[in-house]
Specification:
4 copies of one chain form a homotetramer. The first copy, chain A, has 283 residues and is an alpha/beta fold. Chain A folds into 2 domains: 78 residues, 2-Layer Sandwich (Alpha-Beta Plaits); 195 residues, 3-Layer(aba) Sandwich (Rossmann fold). Chain A has a 7-stranded mixed β-sheet, sandwiched between helices. In chain A, strands 2-3-1-4 form a 4-stranded antiparallel β-sheet, with helices on one face. In chain A, helix 4 links the parallel strand 6 and strand 7. In chain A, helix 1 runs antiparallel to helix 2, helix 3 packs parallel to helix 8 and helix 7 packs across helix 8. Chain A is globular, with a radius of gyration of 21 Å. Chain A starts with 6 loop residues before the first strand and ends with a strand. Chains A and D meet through strand 11 and strand 13 of A and strand 11 and strand 13 of D.
Chain lengths: 283, 283, 283, 283
C-alpha cells in the first residue's frame, strides 16, 4: 500500500535545544507518520535545518493548522515550508546544445522528472524539432537586434504565460541580468560545464585543456547575480588525459553535464535542498 | 568550546508512530543537547534505527537513568546502546602483507584511528619489524604443525590477555572457524580484496584478471560464519584495463584496500554502523 | 584541414621482435600518415595487438595492396582488419525500458552515435511511440505463443532485411539461443544491469539489495553463448546505501546503464576494441 | 624469466611522417625487443612523443651507439632520454603533516616506491620521530629568524650532500623562490590539497568549505615559478557534503592527497611522464 497523502516539511530556524522534540511532538499530535527525517545544524551560523517526509494515513492533513502549530513552537525566525509530494511546474531555457534538453525530455516523457515541462524557450530555433517530438510548446525568442533588457523582457513575457515554479537552464548560453534573476529568487537552476569554481566563465573546456587538468566536471547550481557563483547543488567529474583535445573534452563532458543536471533537478523537485547562504544543505 | 561529555546513542526497535518524538523527549528531559541525529526505517523488516550524538553541557550524564527512561518509552524489542565518544581497544591480525597494517599503524601513531592498538598477531613473523617501529606488542603464532583448532586456540589465548572490543583482520589470510567467529559476534572486521560478491574466495585478483573486468575493488565487512558473506561496511573501486596483469591488479588494489579498511574502521569505531540482518545501516 | 581518407587498421598476431617496425615500414611505404598508434602484447598468450589510425593525404588508399603487403610481412596467423572511419549500420533490440534506447536515439538524432540505426526490434510494443518520434522503423515481434526458436526465427527474418553490422541489446530482456548468437559472432553488444561478474542472471538490483552492497554498477559486453559471460567492454559504478530500496537502485542504475552502453558503443564503432579470448583489449 | 636489462626510451621531437618506423627500425637493428610502446602527437604544437620499454636479451646494450643512431635518424630538435629501469634517488621535503610522508615511508620500506629516499628535510622537527623509525637521515632546518633566501640556502646546502634526481614536496608548506626552483628544473614534485586550478594558494579546504563544493580533490604537479601552476601529473577527488566542516574536509582530504602523490611519484619514477609546455603527456 502506498503512503497516503505524503508531504515534505522543510524547517529552518536558529538552533536551540529540543527542536527535534518540539517538531516531532507537533507532527505526532497532527497524526503525521514520519517516513524519513533529516536534521542538520550549521556549526558556523548556528542555524537548524530539518526535512521530514510524512504521511497521514487516517485523515486528511489540515495544512494551516499544522503550520500554525509548528510556528508557535519554533523560534521567531523559523521558516516553514510544507509541500505535497507532487510534480513541479517548470520551463526549460536552452540555446543550441541538445544533450541536457534531450535527456530531460526523455525523462519527462516517462514521468521520471518529478516535473511538468510547460514550455521550452530558446534564443535559437535549433532545438525546435527536438522539442516538437515531445509535444511541448517551443518559444523561439531570438536575441538578435535586441538589447539584453529587451530580450529578457520578451522571455519574461513568455514565462508569465506559464507561471512556472522553477526555470531550468539546460545549456542556456546567455548571461542573465540581476533584474531577471531577482524575479525568480532561488528558482533558477543552471548547469555549468566545469567543476566550479575552476574555470568560471566562457569556454571552460578550452580553459581545462589549456591548463592540462586530468579531471573535468560539471556543476549544477542555483543562479544568483554573480556569474557561476550561486549555491552548488550537485557536481561530478570524469577522467581525461593528454589525448583529449578541447573538443574531445566538450564531447565527453556532455554526459556528465546531463547526469549532474538531472540529479540536481531530482533533488530540487523532491524538496530535498535547503539554501543556506551561498551553500546548500541536501537531504 | 568543545562539546562536553559527548555520547553516541544507538537505538533499534520495531517501528511505530512517534518514536522520534518519544526518544527526543527523553533526551530533552535528561539535558541532552542533540548534535547529530539520523533515523532509518527498514521498509522490509519495519525495523527502526536511530543514531544520536549528544552532549550534556550543564551536568554529568546519568547513563543508567537515561537508558531506563528510554527503554520504558520504547517497544519491548528495543536495543539501546549508549557509548561515550572515545577510542576503542582493538587487536589487529595480519599475515605477510604490509599495506593495510602500515596504513593503520601510521594513523594510530598520530591518533587518527579512533582506536588503541593493543597488539598485532600474525601467523608469520614477516611484519614483526614494521610493528616494532611503533612500539606495539607483536605475537607471532605460526600455524605450522598445528590443526586449525590448535592454532586458533593459541590466538584466542593471546587475545584474552588484551580483551579487545574489536578484531581487525588486516589481510589475515586464514579462514576462521565458526567457533572462533562466535566468540566475537559483530566484532571482527575484515578487508576482502575484491568488490564483493564478485570473486569470493581465493585469489580474487587472479579471478578478476581472468574475467577481464574493467574495474576492481575492495570490501570491508563484518565476519560471520560464511566466508566473505558478512554485512558489508564499505566498498570502493578503481579502474583497470587490459594492460594490467593479475600482479599489477594486486599492486593497484593495495591502495584501495587500505583506504576502504580505514574508512570502515572509522565508521565502526565512531559507532556509526548498525547491523541489520546481513546488511548494515550507516549514519 | 580534416584528415583525408582516415582509416583504422587492426592487426593481431603471434608476437615476435620487430613487428612494429615491419608494420610501420609498410604503412610508410604506402603513404600512410600515422595519426594514432597503440600496441599491446598479451603476456600470457604472447599475442600482439596493434591499432593504427592513419590518413593518406596525397593519394587514394589502395586497400588490397596495403593488406597484402601487411600480410606478407606478418606471421601466418595474423588477422588484419582495415576499416574506413565511417558510421556502422546497426539494429537495436529492446523490450520495455526506455532509458538506454532513449539515450541512443538522442545521440543518433544528432549524429553522435558513430552509427546508423536501421531499425528497432522489440518483443513488446511499449517503445513504439518513442521510436516513432525519431522516424526509425519499429518491428514489434511478440514472443507470446511462440517457442524461443520461432520467436528468434521471426527476429532473424527482420534482421535479414537490414543486414546490420552490429546488434545492440538495449535492455532486451530475452535470453538468446546459441544458434542466434552464432549468427552474429562478436557482433552483439549487451548492457547488463550489474557490475559483472557480481549478480549474474535475473533481477540483479534485487540481488544487490539483498546482499547489502554499497556500490552498484553496469556492464557492457559482447554476447556469447554463456549468459552474461562474454568479453567485457565497459563498466561503471555508482554509490548506494541502506536507504536505497531495490527499486531505488534500479532507478539510480538507469543512468549508469545508459552511459556505460553509450561508451561501449563508441569504443566498438570506432574500431577500438579487440576481442582477446574472453577479454577485450581497448585502445 | 624476467626481462634482461630493461630500459625506457623517451623521445620527443617535431612530428613528421615515418617517425615510428624510423625509431623502431633503429631499435630493431640494435637488438632491442619492444615490451611496451606509446606515441602521442600534440595536435597544437605538432610535437611527437614516444615512450618505449624494451629489453636486450642476447647482449649488453651499447647506450651511446643507440642514442647516436636515434639522433641521426630524427629531426634536429629531437630530445632523447634513455634510462635503465632502476630506482631514482630522491629527497623528501615536509613540514608538520605526516600523512603523505608516512605513506611514502611505508612504500619505501617495502621497496614499492621506485625510489631511494636519501634524506628528509623539514622546517620543523615534528616529523623527526617518524622518519627515525625508518632509519633515514632527517635534517631539521628551521626557517625561524632566517630570510627566505637564507633558509633556502641552508636547504640547498643539505641537498648538495645527497645530489638527488628528484625533490618530493610531501606537504612542504613553504613557497619556493624562482632561484630555488631554477636549480631543479622539472625535478620538483608537489602535492597540492585542492583540485587545481580551483582553490589556488593558502587554505584550500577552507576555501572549498566557504564555496560549498560537493567534491574536493588533490593535485600532484611539477613545481615551476608560478605558485600551484606547474604541469599537472595526477588528480583525484572525493565527495563531500554540507555536513563536512573545513576541518572534516582536511581530514578526509588526507587520504586522497597521499594516494594522488604516490600515483604521481610512480608515474615519474617509471619515466612515464613527458613535460609538454605547461602540460604533461603520460604513458
Amino acid at each position: 500500500m502506498p503512503h497516503q497523502n505524503p508531504h515534505v516539511l522543510q524547517i529552518s530556524c536558529q538552533d536551540e535545544t529540543g527542536l527535534v522534540y518540539q517538531i516531532t511532538k507537533v507532527l505526532f499530535e497532527h497524526g503525521a507518520n514520519i517516513l524519513k527525517n533529516d536534521e542538520f545544524v550549521d556549526a558556523e551560523s548556528k542555524r537548524f535545518f530539518m526535512r521530514t517526509e510524512f504521511s497521514c494515513q487516517d485523515r486528511k492533513l489540515d495544512e494551516p493548522a499544522l503550520r500554525n502549530a509548528l510556528l508557535s513552537n519554533l523560534p521567531k525566525d523559523a521558516e516553514v515550508k510544507l509541500c505535497p509530494c507532487q510534480n513541479k511546474n517548470i520551463v526549460v531555457l536552452a540555446t543550441k546544445e541538445h544533450h541536457c534538453l534531450g535527456d530531460i525530455l526523455i525523462r519527462y516523457a516517462y514521468d521520471e522528472l518529478n516535473a511538468n515541462i510547460l514550455a521550452v524557450i530558446s534564443n535559437h530555433n535549433t532545438l525546435q524539432p527536438l522539442v516538437a517530438k515531445f509535444g511541448i510548446p517551443f518559444h523561439y525568442i531570438s536575441h538578435k537586434n535586441k538589447t539584453r533588457e529587451e530580450h529578457e523582457g520578451a522571455v519574461v513575457k513568455a514565462l508569465e504565460i506559464y507561471d512556472p515554479e522553477f526555470l531550468v537552464l539546460a545549456k542556456y548560453m546567455r548571461i542573465l541580468t540581476p533584474d531577471f534573476v531577482a524575479k525568480y529568487p532561488n528558482r533558477i537552476i543552471n548547469i555549468h560545464h566545469s567543476f566550479l569554481p575552476a574555470f568560471i566563465g566562457a569556454n571552460p573546456y578550452k580553459q581545462a585543456f589549456d591548463r592540462g587538468v586530468k579531471i573535468i566536471g560539471a556543476t549544477a547550481h542555483y543562479v544568483n547575480n554573480d556569474l557561476d557563483e550561486g549555491p552548488i547543488i550537485e557536481q561530478d567529474v570524469i577522467d581525461v588525459n593528454h589525448r583529449f583535445s578541447a573538443k574531445d573534452m566538450a564531447k565527453a563532458g556532455r554526459d556528465v553535464e546531463k547526469i549532474v543536471l538531472a540529479k540536481a533537478l531530482k533533488l530540487v523537485f523532491e524538496d530535498r535542498v535547503f539554501i543556506n547562504g551561498n551553500k546548500t544543505a541536501i537531504f
